[in-house]
Amino acid sequence: MQLDVFTLIPHAFAWLTEQRPVAAVLGDELELRLLNYRDYTPLSGGQVDDEPYGGGAGMVLRVDVVAAALDAVYGGTTQHRVVALTPQGRQLTQEVVEELSQEQHLTLLSARFEGFDERVLTQLASDSISIGPYVLSGGELPAMVLVDAVARRLPGALGSEESGLVESFSAELDGGLEYPHYTRPAEFRGWPVPEVLLSGDHGKIDEWRREQSRLRAAS
Ligand SMILES: C[S@@+](CC[C@H](N)C(=O)[O-])C[C@H]1O[C@@H](n2cnc3c(N)ncnc32)[C@H](O)[C@@H]1O
């Protein structure tokens, strides 16, 4: 997958690209480009935003700046999905992550301050996605959330210590929640690990886990 993130703070992504799952698939299943709007702005002095028409607080990311960045990178035609990150978008769920992880090419647009000129959302982006009903200061964290969630669905992203197949919201668990996990010690401060997990009977363990998963979904 080719994943392009347009941002004003590309260096914010350094940590993400050094860690699994992104680090494991970079240069192989995932090509990640971090593109700075300022490198493409047609305005002087690296200007990318402006005051809102009609007045009010804050600065708005200009549509001509975002268009210039997209044109410079894609040569005037954008055939793939361009996702704008905004708290007003479609809510990110595992289903949306699965859908996006099937794309060959994906672009994420992030903003800061008051957000995008509305024409970015209506004319330049194909989708708007929110990572939750709250407002963050910029689209970098939402973009990182999406990149991480998508990257872990790519082949080779997860190590042997993690399973991407059986986890919360997976088809394997009918979209429900994962069962509880325990590790050593078997008892701590009088808090024991469920007996069945120590039994070595994998049939029973599997049955218990599925039941726990069902109980969590029901509560
Ligand atoms: C301070 S927010 C702008 C909020 C906007 N004025 C509003 O009230 O809807 C600045 C930018 O951060 C990003 N952002 C903030 N919260 C987000 C969320 N929950 N999901 C996705 N992006 C978010 C978006 O790129 C947004 O344009």
Spatial strand arrangement across the major sheet: 2-1-6-5-7
Extract low-pLDDT stretches.
none
Distance between the termini: 37 Å
Class from helix and strand fractions:
alpha/beta
> Could you report the average pLDDT, rounded to the nearest whole number?
95
Main beta-sheet strand count, sense and barrel state: 5 strands, parallel
- Topology, number of strands: 9
Principal-axis shape equals elongated
In DSSP terms, counting alpha (H) and pi (I) runs of 4 or more, how many helices?
Answer: 7
The helix/strand series, from N terminus to C terminus, equals EHHEEEHEHEHEHEEH
Percent helix, as a range, is 25-40%
Protein described:
A hairpin with a 2-residue loop joins strand 8 and strand 9 (191-192). By secondary structure, this protein is of the alpha/beta class. The protein contains 7 helices and 9 strands, in the order E-H-H-E-E-E-H-E-H-E-H-E-H-E-E-H. It is elongated. Helix 4 packs across helix 6 (140-151). The two termini are 37 Å apart. S-adenosylmethionine binds at residues 85-88, 110-112, 114-116, 130-132, 134-139, 142.
In short:
The protein is α/β, with parallel strands linked by helices and 219 residues long. The chain has helices at 14-18, 22-25, 63-74, 94-101, 118-124, 140-151, 202-218; strands at 2-7, 31-36, 49-50, 60-61, 81-91, 105-109, 127-130, 187-188, 191-192. It is 30% helix and 18% strand.
List keywords for this structure.
219 residues, alpha/beta, five-stranded parallel sheet, 30% helix, elongated, binds S-adenosylmethionine
